[in-house]
Amino acid sequence: MAENEAERADDPAPSPDADAASEPAPSAAPPATATRRGALEMLVAAGSAAYVAALIVPAGRFLASGAAGTRGERWLRAIRLDALDDGTPARVQIKGDQRDGITVTPARTLGPVGVNKKGSEVAALSSECPHLGCAVDLAAGGKAFGCPCHTSRFGLDGKAESGPAPRGMDALATRVVDGWVEVDFRRYRQGAAELVEV
């Protein structure tokens, strides 16, 4: 026992620096694989954010345009008020942005409208036949509208007079702004007696 104590006394005490030397020293910079992994994670996160934005932005535009449900008014210029002759309908091509799903095509011809002025009142009728969508125009003599394809006939007020059309011509709201007649342009389902907007 005394010998063991003597041996212990002869052995030098372990220094704290000896333990530190046996462990690997922490490096100042992370290993190259950790740096690459972090960069890859950042790229994946940025790509995911761009992908989500690519889905959300068009969807937001689609919902804001009202295409997903009932939409608000869509006033488009039709014709100058002073270009209308009292009691004589004028056929006007309405132009505006065409929406198809989430795609918007600017300045497209959307369809024809018959605009009529009587005194201070202005009225507009869709020039698409409610039967099958053929182009309705002023009949000979200018006293009625007629569909050349299926012989539907309408009065100047748009009421159906004869033929297979299930309803009269579709009336569109109008207003006059800065000397221009503007029309709240809408389309309705063809072949149905009731008005169903499409």
Write up what this structure looks like:
This protein has 198 residues and is an alpha+beta fold. The protein has 3 helices and 11 strands. The chain folds into 2 domains: 16-64; 75-184, 3-layer Sandwich (Rieske Iron-sulfur Protein), CATH 2.102.10. Strands 2-3-4-9 form a 4-stranded antiparallel β-sheet, with no helix packed on it. The model is unreliable at 66-70 (pLDDT under 50).
The CATH architecture of the largest domain: 3-layer Sandwich
What composes the largest sheet?
A: 4 strands, antiparallel
Structural class, by secondary structure, is alpha+beta
Report the principal-axis shape: elongated
What is the helix content? 10-25%
Features:
4-stranded antiparallel beta sheet; Rieske Iron-sulfur Protein; alpha+beta
Topology:
Blueprint: H1 2-10, H2 16-22, H3 32-64, E1 75-80, E2 90-100, E3 103-118, E4 121-126, E5 137-138, E6 144-146, E7 153-155, E8 160-162, E9 171-172, E10 174-177, E11 180-184
Antiparallel strand pairs: 1-11, 2-3, 3-4, 4-9, 5-6, 6-7, 7-8, 10-11
